[in-house]
Amino acid sequence: MKKVILSVAMLCATGMLFAQSNTSNINSLGVTNAAGVLQVGYANDSDIDQDGQMNALGGVSNLAGVLQLGSMNSATINQQGDRNDAFSTQFGSGNTSTQSQGVGHAEDNFQFALQIGNNNSSDQVQRWDNNIGIIEQHGDNNMSTQDQRTLTNGAVGSYAFNIQSGDWNENQQIQRGEENSARSFQYGNMNYSNQEQYGNDNISYTRQVGDDNRSFAVQTGNGNDQNTFQNGDDNYAYSHQIGDDNNSDTDQIGDDNYSATVQLGDDNKSKVFQRGDDNGAYSFQFGNDNDALTTQRGDNNGSATLQDGDDNLARTRQYGDDNLSGTLQFGDGNKSWTKQDGTSNLSGTLQIGLDNRANTNQEGTGNMHGTLQYGSNHSSIVNQIGNGNMAAVGQFGGVTF
Question: Is pLDDT at 19 greater than 90 in this prediction?
């Protein structure tokens, strides 16, 4: 008998340990809503509110679930509408999850948050219908924010997905419109990713591996596509596209590399590939159907491309160290090819007008080149191999615009 009493006492004590000072509040109004909460640990807090305005009694068929294992975790779910699903799972201490879907009429949205570690924070907001938001964080002191709004009742929603593994990483995803997709992957410490999309059918993808990397991607319009990949430490990537059907790709491997891409117009393409350390690439395109490609391998190389007009093309390739290149094209149908292999080479190309061509090749150390073409249908070819060579080309005549 004593053993039975002792066993019951131990079971009760264990139950108290698993549920010391945890707090749960569930408030569901409507028809066939469901909510479940499981909290194991100390001082965890859960608050679920489900309601709606499509039915006289409230929300219909909403589903919410919270699982918290650890101490001092907090989960808040607020669903206002019909057939919305939200789930929050947290393992560790001091994690915070906030999920909000709709203001009364939202339908068929889905949110999921998984946080494993300590002091992580996730905040998810979805408005209107058919959105999907997923957050997964592993480590300590990570922060993730998702805000998706279709702005139209009954429209196909957007998709946001974020994974962070490490410490002190931060991610922000903002989407306004229909059928947008934002995905972010960060592995390491103190990385930052920002993705903003305004319009319809835009795609944004960011992947960062290492420490202290920064990525900013903003797209306004329809059918734009942005991809950023950074592997290393202290890299920075910025991409801003305004218009329709633009494409921006940034790929950096190494440390302390910098890339900035700005495109204003329709059907523009920009690609930047950098391998090494301390390289910098700038690509600015204003107009339609422009195309820029920059490839740099080595250290301390710098490239700048500016194209203003339509149907311009720029190709820059630099292999080596301390090379500099600048390409400026104003007008339509201009094309420039620049290739530098070696050390401390310098190249500059300026074309103003229509259908001009410039082709530059430099191999060696300390070579310098400059081409200026003003007018239409000019062609320049410069080929320098060796050290300390210099070339200058100036051609004028013909229609400019």
Answer: no
